[in-house]
Design a protein that fits this description.
Number of domains: 1
Largest sheet: 6 strands, mixed
Radius of gyration: 14 Å
CATH architecture: Roll
Structural class: alpha/beta
CATH class: Alpha Beta
CATH topology: Chitinase A, domain 3
Oligomer: single chain
Strand content: 25-35%
CATH superfamily: Transcription elongation factor, GreA/GreB, C-terminal domain
Length: about 140
Amino acid sequence: MSHSSRRARTVIDSALLERLEILAGAAIARFPDVAYPLVNKLTAAELVERSSLPPDVVTIGNEVLYRDHLTARDLRVRLSWPEQADISQGVVSILTPVGVALLGLAEGDQFQWTTRAGAERGLTVLQVEPSRATAEAEQQ
């Protein structure tokens, strides 16, 4: 899976880096098409403290409205850790092509990639909403 982003730099919560790196490393043998792009994204990312993460940047727990360029449909999902994922409920794992694409993007950002089958895919982030847990943690 090759990819490109329409933004200068991906922004990631530094508190999540270690767990994301462990997940990516563990997934390399089974899911290289997801793991390698995640590793590349983490390597190139600007790491910031959670309190400095812009509110319109996608991170674990956020609800995201995005436009799928292939279908021209707007989709709403929540980005999650793999063990919490439930696609029937709109909860997407970070270890999916869409999960990797969304991580660290901000409203208005676009992300494009080529699937294993050679199909071009892309999305545009339309809206980012913090999760209730994230909002509660920030208030403490």
